[in-house]
Specification:
Elements lengths: L18 H11 L5 H4 L2 H15 L5 E5 L5 H13 L7 E6 L2 E5 L1 H13 L5 E3 L8 E2 L2 H24 L4 E6 L6 H8 L5 E3 L15 E9 L8 E10 L7 H16 L5 E10 L7
Parallel strand pairs: 2-6, 4-7
Antiparallel strand pairs: 1-3, 2-3, 4-5, 8-9, 8-10
Length: 280
């Protein structure tokens, strides 16, 4: 258990939010056709909580699989959330390979910069031909660093040029491993990578994985609502080598949690699991 923090027209920042308005925003703006009305209220509130977690600085990004309209539907949804008082802070919408990432601009850039500095590089090669996961070699790690450096420069330029509450930009990721880039942006202390041309095939089946989950309560949205902030895995065999980045991730999370007031009752848990197949 981590440290706890205190608890019509747009609501003032920090005030209680209207759960019905948040559900309505998701149902009316996300998805297409009949999908909109079928969105369960619980899922709509979870999504609002995840957006709030980004805005509150608890994680650098949220990944969203766009519908036929692309990031435009997410932009409309965010406008509705801002109207409901959920996020007065500046956010950035990054279109990347058919998906969209909602970024906390400062945290996302800080996360990219920290990953570029990290030694050993926190990239785990899970290519299907490997007998077991291993840290990427120097050549593979340097190629990934090149992609991350390009993305860091892109985000810096986009942030400098933007003035709106929600800015947006697009990156065409030629030759990038999107799984790795997304993992870094989402704030995972270690990101998976695999050889080009293998699709999502990997060597994680029947491999012991330490799965980390982070949850917290969000009374601003609804009493008793638990929001999942993080869920990621690290091969158990590499936890010792990656102890430095795992410890740094936890320390930064607890520091960020103590600096905000939207969430309370932080819980960081981990367990070792072995699965017959793992999708990335």
């Amino acid at each position: 258990m981590g440290p706890a923090a205190g608890a019509g027209a747009a609501a003032p920042a920090g005030s209680a939010l209207s759960a019905p308005r948040l559900v309505e925003a998701a149902r009316e703006e996300l998805g297409a056709g009949r999908r909109r009305r079928r969105l369960p209220a619980a899922r709509a509130l979870q999504l609002a909580g995840e957006v709030l977690a980004v805005a509150a600085g608890l994680k650098p990004a949220l990944l969203y699989d766009c519908g036929p309209e692309g990031p435009a539907e997410l932009r409309r949804y965010l406008a509705r959330l801002r109207g409901a008082g959920l996020s007065p802070r500046r956010l950035h919408l990054l279109a990347l390979g058919g998906s969209a990432l909602l970024l906390h601009p400062r945290l996302a850039r800080r996360r990219l910069a920290a990953t570029l500095r990290a030694r050993p590089a926190p990239f785990v090669d899970v290519s299907a031909w490997r007998p077991c996961p291993a840290l990427c070699g120097p050549a593979e790690a340097e190629a990934i660093r090149g992609h991350l450096a390009a993305l860091l420069a892109h985000l810096g330029a986009a942030e400098a040029d933007g003035t709106e509450p929600v800015t947006s930009s697009e990156v065409v990721p030629v030759g990038w491993n999107l799984c790795t880039v997304a993992g870094v942006l989402l704030g995972y202390p270690a990101a998976y990578a695999f050889a080009a041309g293998e699709g999502a095939e990997n060597c994680l089946a029947l491999t012991p994985l330490r799965v980390f989950t982070v949850q917290a309560s969000c009374p601003r949205i609804r009493d008793g609502l638990r929001v999942q902030i993080y869920s990621f895995s690290v091969p158990e065999s590499l936890c010792t080598e990656l102890k430095g980045v795992l410890d740094a991730w936890r320390d930064e999370l607890e520091e960020a949690f103590s600096a905000q007031s939207d969430f309370v009752d932080l819980c960081v848990a981990s367990e070792v699991v072995t699965l017959p197949a793992v999708a990335l």
